Amino acid sequence: MENPENGNLSLRTQGAWLLFAKVVGFGFTFLLPLLIVRFLSQENVGIYRQAFQVIVNATAVLPLGFSMSAYYFLSRSTGLRRASTVFNILIFNFSVGGIACLTLYIFPQLIGNIFQSQEMTRLAPLIGLV
User: Fold this and answer.
1) Residue 3 pLDDT > 70, yes or no?
2) Overall domain count for the chain
3) 60 — alpha (psi -120 to 50), left (phi > 0) or beta?
């Protein structure tokens, strides 16, 4: 049952929103490759997949699991200490992301040499922004 005074939603409502989000995510996961293959040339699909692979791997590796420390520290801290913990995690993630972006902007040939593609070299600064 919903409690509008506290802003707390019932478990059923939270579960319904989670189910809705999962169904929408599945729909995008299913439809996006079909649309990409339909509207892009074979060469552009390959470039898209390479860029997507770089982004997914960087997203998984660059945070170094630092954000997972939030589960340990946030459950044990209160008030100002909790806010500083979240702030430190955000600062770390922005710093690592900024270093990666700067690296790809200064040395775009890093990705181009890995994939042996001039197009990936051209797209490297844009990939760094993501």
Assistant:
1) no
2) 2
3) alpha
